[in-house]
Amino acid sequence: MRDRLRWRWLAWAAIVWLSLSWALLAWARGPLPDDATVALSQLPREAQLVWQRIRQGGPFPYEKDGTVFFNRERLLPPAKRGYYREYTVPTPGLNHRGARRIVCGGWTPTEPDACYYTADHYASFRRIVP
User: Fold this and answer.
1) Tens of pLDDT, residue by residue, the chain (130 residues)
2) Which helix H or strand E contains 86, and what residues bound it?
3) What's the rounded Cα separation, in Å, for the pair 71 and 118?
4) Residues assigned a catalytic role
5) Domains in the chain with CATH codes
6) Chain-centre distance of CA 63, in angstroms?
7) How far apart are CA 129 and CA 118, in angstroms?
8) What is the Cα Rg of the chain in Å?
9) Sign of the torsion angle spanned by Cα atoms 72, 73, 78, 79
């Protein structure tokens, strides 16, 4: 019984420690710098096609495309839940979703206020400039 309680306490402590570490890391990195932009023409061809599909309303090959992005990393400007949506940018040669994404903010998915590109699974973002 004592061992079980000890393990539960250790698991709880680890979860709290990891959550705090993650929050501190996000806070230390800070929000997206104002100069973190990329021209649409400089993105990989796959990203350009996804950007076009977003504006056309699809079709999207992945089930997660168009779902709510929660901005847990807090690298994008703060917004209410549901403002951001994520889309997969395929990586040639991979048989899974990979790390590349476009995240768009706005209340009308086909007319986003701003879109951001990440090649490293949300560790960094650059605002897409059409």
Assistant:
1) 667 767 776 666 556 555 555 444 444 455 555 568 999 999 999 999 999 999 999 999 999 999 999 999 999 999 999 999 999 999 999 989 999 999 999 999 999 999 999 999 999 999 999 8
2) strand 84-88
3) 13
4) 86, 121
5) 31-129 (3.10.450.30)
6) 15
7) 14
8) 18
9) negative
